[in-house]
Specification:
ethanolamine kinase; ethanolamine kinase activity; 2 domains; 358 residues; alpha+beta; single chain; EC 2.7.1.82; Kinase-like_dom_sf; 15 helices; 5-stranded antiparallel sheet
């Protein structure tokens, strides 16, 4: 579907929705289909049915299964939908999904993220306390960060470049050997391998009743892992929630600090405008609200500024690793994606920022 002309694609989406929702001709003729903008991986279409119900049809980006475990993603989407923290999945087809459209305002920039800072922190704490076992593999819960980084390093090592010009730019402008060395060095460092006796392959889930674990960003939770501003919907009319997270392709168990450091980086947008990085005050407000929501209040734990500052000490490390993570991701995308986005320049920008944080 990804390589067809847009009008043919729209027709195929229309036929797909008709089959899934068993629409009669007179109803299907009223379908309104509109391509959504903002994503840099997949194609997304909003479909409005004749009764004004909105749904989304997502067509996976070309060869993105190299980066994303689509079986695991589907499992997570279904489980998140059951728990009311994600969109319900209506149907699955060969290279995409049909799922629930979340009504509300899509946040656009750092100003929006600051405005909803507390609500985002509360929602992230709710996510991090989720317990979603990967039943289809019975895999043991462990942080995904270095598993992904190592996988993506191997992808780049073994890539057959489709565009010689892009390959030459990659070889000239990106020190890939340093990336390979850094991934292994950091993964085996004291921070991740031996900190407090942790085993980096079998980290412990953060226990909301244990204050030491609550304020330790190296403990793990169920993370979004891609909390860009555009992946946050403000739901002004909702009774029980203010924001909802969307686009859960990369979600899974990970270091809680990574999710927060990554979100702080995303204040800067795809343009990587460092002046938009959240101030110390915003960071402290976010972490205070996050910890206050995460901790089990029944055990009379009170979050203090000391706890906030303790948690924040390690966030720069996770911000740095976020740049490495998305820099590698963008290198792979530069060779496989057919979307109109300069992935290699984006990779260069993220990796340069990563190096500046040494």
């Amino acid at each position: 579907m990804m390589n067809r002309e847009e009008d043919e694609l729209i027709l195929e989406i229309k036929q797909l929705v008709e089959r899934v929702f068993s629409l009669q001709n007179k109803l299907s003729s009223d379908l309104q289909i509109q391509r959504q903008t903002g994503g840099n991986t997949n194609r997304l279409y909003k479909v409005t049915l004749s009764d004004h119900t909105n749904i989304l049809v997502r067509i996976n980006g070309l060869e993105t299964e190299r980066l994303i475990d689509r079986k695991k993603e589907l499992h997570h989407m279904i489980e998140l939908g059951k728990r009311g923290v994600g969109s319900r999945v209506y149907a699955v087809f060969q290279n995409g999904f049909i799922y629930e459209y979340v009504e509300g305002k899509c946040l656009q920039n750092a100003q929006d993220a600051t405005l909803y800072c507390k609500e985002i922190a509360h929602k992230l704490a709710e996510w991090h306390k989720l317990k979603i076992q990967d039943h289809y593999t019975n895999s043991q819960i462990s942080p995904s960060l270095f598993t992904c980084l190592r996988k993506w390093v191997e992808l780049v090592k073994n890539m057959e470049w489709k565009d010689e010009k892009v390959m030459r730019k990659f070889e000239k402008e990106i020190d890939f050997q340093r990336i390979c060395n850094d991934v292994e060095e950091i993964a085996n460092s004291a921070s991740f391998g031996m900190k407090k006796g942790h085993d980096s392959s079998q980290q412990q889930l953060a226990d909301p009743t244990n204050l030491d674990q609550v304020i330790d960003p190296f403990t793990i939770g169920f993370c979004h892992n891609d909390l860009v501003i555009l992946n946050i919907i403000a739901r002004e009319d909702a009774i029980d929630t203010k924001v909802q997270f969307i686009d859960c392709e990369y979600c899974g168990y990970n270091y809680r600090g990574f999710d927060i450091g990554n979100h702080f980086n995303e204040y800067c947008g795809f343009q990587m405008d460092e002046s938009l990085f959240p101030s110390q005050q915003i960071q402290e407000t976010f972490v205070y609200e996050y910890l206050k929501s995460f901790v089990d209040t029944a055990h009379s734990h009170e979050i203090t500024q000391h706890h906030v500052k303790q948690f924040l000490k390690s966030i720069p490390l996770f911000c740095k690793l976020s740049h490495l993570f998305w820099g590698l991701w963008a290198i792979v995308q530069s060779n496989v994606s057919n979307l109109e986005f300069d992935f290699l320049s984006y990779a260069k920008g993220r990796l340069e920022w990563y190096k500046r944080m040494d």
